Task: structure prediction
Amino acid sequence: MASKSSGSGRKAGGGLARPVQPSAELAAITGSDPLPRSQVVSKVWDHIRKNNLQNPQNKREILADDKLEPVILERKEVTYSYFADPLYVFMDEEFNQYEIEKDDLEGVMTFIEDGMTDVCEAVFYNDKVISVELPTTIVREIVYTEPSVRGDTSGKVMKTARLKNGAELQVSAFCEIGDFIEIDTRTGEYKSRVKA
Result:
């Protein structure tokens, strides 16, 4: 999960794996026994998947049921700051830092890279960050792909391209090293080539 960092370093043990007592509302989903925050998030996601609570058109949107509605989530705009093994650090506009483990960045790790300026949305529960959501569309640079084949500019022929962070995806055959591409973070798919 995450904790707010005071900037003075972390205490040994950090409390990230320490069991927390779920509120009565959350216990309806996770059970009443104390659990590490990572297991709380996992159980909430299990509930969401089991009850098909993700919007089919936008998987990042959760359609709350009677059990999930009382679990109030707060949201705050943040940007990725740096990696402090094993935590990823995000910062809000007031320069507050929030640390989050890789496991809690499920679905967005593919697009996290040093120097990214995307404004993300941190999701909080009981003043703790439980996940980070990227914008629907992001722009990334291709650092490697095979040379283009002359003649095909239709965009229907695809090839593999690698991004700065090592992630790979299928792009149009006319895309080249150094090109910037638009990616739909909901599907992880290439949308178009854009001007830098």
Q: What stands out?
A: The two ends are 35 Å apart (CA to CA).
